[in-house]
Design brief:
This protein is of the alpha+beta class. The chain has a single domain (4-329), classed as B-lactam Antibiotic, Isopenicillin N Synthase, Chain (Jelly Rolls). The chain is built from eight helices and 16 strands. The strands form four sheets. It has an eight-stranded mixed sheet with strand order 3-4-12-9-14-7-6-5, covered by helices on one side. Strands 8-13-10-11 form a four-stranded antiparallel sheet, with no helix packed on it. The chain is globular.
Length: 332
């Protein structure tokens, strides 16, 4: 299904991705083409037919609500560490690297960041490489860790199916992208947005206008609304909370890989629809830190040279994290 007509985008397209889970190659390719149209026109879609059991999502939302309901002093026992894992309090991030807005006010949100789980003897952990360290778990919530890791496993499996759709849609050899995701960079962020103050200035956001840093973002949102996506003509479109769906959007790596064909689209959150707290679960599926990002085969040719310089993903990511999060600015 699509909600676009001749370049006039009036709503977020809805795509049933269930054929990507089947062995019907023709149906999978048709779905991949539909996803790629959404990537080209807006960089966003609402996906259904994804195969994630609703109870997996609900358990994770319940864990997030329970964590954020805890006293602040308790939450601060797992304050975010140098490996970008743990609790970040209200107004502790400001998206200063945004290319679409001059953001000066901190985001009106709090969150828990969990990344890919690593063994204590992992070589990258022992070497203390950037973002390669321990997750932090609330000791007062004994089932929290298992719930979040189950959710991350389910979302990673979905992300890899969507990656297959990208490969099919670009007519790339099967498995071409797999080595870049052999040791992926994974994040899940348990976000809580308090109700937007009625007297807040116009430049105060739950999440200020920005684009995501990486490859794919898969977002579960509650029924509060408030997520908006900027259309090519500059209008802000609502990304409605459709039951059973996820919001899928592309990050900044995708225009580089596709030589500008796909969009990393600005989006924002203003929690002013219901007067209630808003919760969301963005999952970020990104390549390994050592991956070199450059134009993919078939995305360049005569009259269409590469538009972007190659870069190492880890360098790009750390620059943005270091500039946008208060705890990084206070180091040293």
């Amino acid at each position: 299904m699509s909600a676009t007509t001749s370049g006039d985008i009036s709503a977020i397209p809805i795509v049933d991705v269930s054929p990507l889970l089947s062995s019907d190659d023709e149906a999978a390719r048709a779905t991949a083409a539909e996803l790629c149209r959404a990537y080209e026109q807006l960089g966003f879609a609402l996906i259904i037919g994804h195969g994630i059991p609703p109870e997996v999502v609900e358990r994770t939302f319940a864990a997030s609500r329970a964590f954020h309901a805890a006293p602040l002093a308790q939450k601060q026992t797992i304050v975010i560490n140098e490996f970008h894992r743990g609790y970040m309090g209200l107004a502790s991030s400001t998206v200063v690297t945004s290319l679409v807005a001059h953001n000066t006010r901190p985001n009106l949100s709090e969150s828990v960041l969990v990344m890919h789980e690593l063994a204590p003897d992992d070589p990258n952990v022992l070497a203390r490489k950037p973002l390669q360290g321990p997750n932090q778990w609330p000791s007062w919530m004994p089932g929290f860790r298992a719930t979040i890791l189950d959710y991350m496993d389910a979302m990673e499996a979905l992300a890899r199916r969507l990656l297959r759709g990208l490969t099919l849609g670009l007519d790339l050899p099967e498995g071409l992208l797999a080595p870049m995701f052999a040791r992926p960079t994974l994040f899940v962020r348990l976000l809580h947005y308090p109700p937007h103050p009625a007297d807040a200035p116009s430049d105060q956001f739950g999440s200020a206008p920005h684009t995501d840093y990486g490859c794919l973002t898969i977002l579960a949102q509650d029924g509060s609304g408030g997520l908006q996506v900027r259309a090519p003509d500059g209008r802000w479109l609502d990304a409605p909370p459709v039951p059973g769906s996820f919001v899928l959007n592309l990050g900044d790596l995708m225009p580089l890989w596709s030589n500008g064909r796909f969009k990393s689209t600005p989006h924002r959150v203003i929690n002013n629809r219901t007067g209630r707290d808003r919760y969301s679960l963005p999952f970020f599926f990104d390549p390994g830190m050592e991956t070199i990002i450059e134009c993919l085969p078939g995305c360049t040719g005569p009259g269409n040279p590469p538009r972007y310089e190659a870069m190492r993903y880890g360098d790009y990511l750390m620059e943005r994290i270091d500039k946008n999060y208060d705890y990084r600015k206070r180091r040293g």
